[in-house]
Amino acid sequence: MKTKIYFGLMALLFILGCSNEEVSVVNPSGSLKKSVQSSINNDKQERKILFISKKDAVTTDEIYAMNSDGSNIARLTNNAVPDGRATWSANGQHTAFASVGLSGLRDIYVMNSNGQGVINLTNTTADEDWPEWSPTGNRIIFSSNRDGNHEIYSINLDGTELTRLTNRTQDDKWPSYSPDGSKIVFQSTLSSTNTDIFVMNADGSEVTQLTTASKFDQMPTWSSDGTKIAFMSNRDGNPEIYVMNSDGSGQTNLTHSSGIDARPSWSKEGDFIVFTSTRDFSTTVANNYEIYIMNGDGANPVRLTNNSVYDDYPFIK
After folding, report:
1. pTM of the predicted structure, to 2 decimals
2. Do the beta carbons of residue 73 and residue 66 sit within 8 Å?
3. Range of the domain at 45
């Protein structure tokens, strides 16, 4: 009974958010630390893009947020272990992300949009990653190998009602809700040299394969109107950003750079795609990824970050 009350209180604190005072939070390495008041503006719409970086000369990946023009960058995490891809909640007041837990493998965490109030949502000995919020904001989908290979799961914000959505022999990863919450698109590993994009109903039924390129088709993301899906593919020789209709038709290359263009995220509040790329660097510094933004049709790409380390895994509201 005490355990249930504790987790109920933690969930309530998370939903209400933290005050502007200093608070104590548990970091992913399990130790207690002080989280100082964040400089993030109370207007949650200002910083729209999340990404990970080592830009502050840190040795592990940390989570940052910035405006959609690349300004007003704020560091949200400060941990001794790497933090992975982070995504906004539907109201923009919280984020979910993957980070190394006490087991040494990744768990799914949630926190307030200013980096405070960190809670380990899954806390298992499995490898869990690629969380994304439902459009209603009451559940999170993610990939986990807790039952063997990676499958897609969903879970309530208080850690209850864990539901396995896929049951396949392949590794299913990178799930993403359609804007109306009725569908989930994801990537599945078919062989060591081939992943394809699949879509299913939100309850895991009616799985349909959308791509058949015999290459790496990965990292799908929905357009804000739900009619299109952007994804990364190396079918033309190097990784580029592609787009297709939600039924898999009309697959088109949006980027045509000599570098790597990957990990697209389509804005929920407009027609913009953010992605990471090495397009402005020679192959000798190909690990220096930077964050870019472009129109949903691939026009007007603009570089948002500029430093000597890699910036990766962008996600835009």
Report:
1. 0.84
2. yes
3. 2-316
What is the chain's pLDDT, residue by residue, as a tens digit (317 residues)?
A: 434 333 443 443 333 343 333 222 333 333 222 222 233 343 444 799 999 999 887 778 999 999 999 999 999 999 889 999 999 999 999 999 999 987 889 999 999 999 999 999 999 999 999 999 999 999 999 999 999 999 999 999 988 999 999 999 999 999 999 999 999 999 999 888 899 999 999 999 999 999 998 899 999 999 999 999 999 999 998 999 999 999 999 999 999 998 999 999 999 988 999 999 999 886 555 578 999 999 999 999 999 999 888 899 999 99
The amino acid sitting at 68 is S
**Contacts of the segment 137-144: beta carbons below 8 A, 24+ positions apart:** 137/89, 137/90, 137/91, 140/96, 140/108, 140/110, 141/165, 141/175, 141/177, 141/184, 142/96, 142/98, 142/108, 142/175, 143/171, 143/172, 143/173, 143/174, 143/175, 143/186
Please check whether residue 224 is in contact with residue 269, taking contact to mean a CB–CB distance below 8 angstroms. Answer: yes
The number of distinct structural domains making up the chain is: 1
How far apart are alpha carbons 252 and 272 in whole angstroms?
16
Residue 227's CATH number:
2.120.10.30
